[in-house]
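The record is kept unedited without comment:

——
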Amino acid sequence: MPLSGPDADVPDLLGYEQVACRQGYRCIAGVDEVGRGPLAGPVVCAAVVLPAAACLPLGLTDSKCLTAKRRERLFDEIQALPGVQIALACISAAEVDELNVLRATHKAMRLAVLQLPSPCDFILVDGLPVPGLPAPSQAIVKGDCLSASIAAASIMAKVTRDRMMTAMDEKFPGYGFARHKGYGTREHLAALEKLGPAPIHRKSFGPVARLLGDRQPEFDFRGGHRLSEGECSFGMRSHADQG
């Protein structure tokens, strides 16, 4: 059953977590994703369970409101919290094409929650309800600005995906992935026109699909460059049995 919003007298960003605790839940995960909109690269989702008595890292908020430098700092500070649980899941561009981006996002969220070192008993999700989660959940519009757990998840997912796309820039030079992270910028669209799609492009997305209808890509799709879900651990370490 959905929880009501946080009380006025509880600290900002911890209100939803404290309401869930008063309802009897003890292991509360925040879940968020990044990468639904880009023309290339994976969808990445993070699930984060913050330790109950932890002091929140200074400046914790929605990853979209932070500079890259501050996201990197918070990424390290969140990982360093004693007893924190963090899990990541990603869905490759090929699977996004196969499932569609909404279903791919929901799958990534489910996988991230299932990969937590300890099962959670309640889930706070950014945005709209997600079907098939393995525990009761509350969807919170703009949750990455309202819940510490979701904000932490948004940072873990964003930094992880950005690092992956920077690595992809070296593997597939000329597209500018390190700068635009796969989003449909003017630079990216111009590179697509010049080079054709790379293996990490989403062939079902309009600009890529139109190009594939007109020409063959310069990269060989049989060359073993398909992004695997295992590559989603880029930059992360295991959090099992910490704290």
Summary: The two ends are 31 Å apart (CA to CA). The CA atoms of residues 141 and 184 lie 25 Å apart. Strands lie at 28-34, 43-49, 85-91, 122-126, 137-140. The longest strand covers residues 28-34.
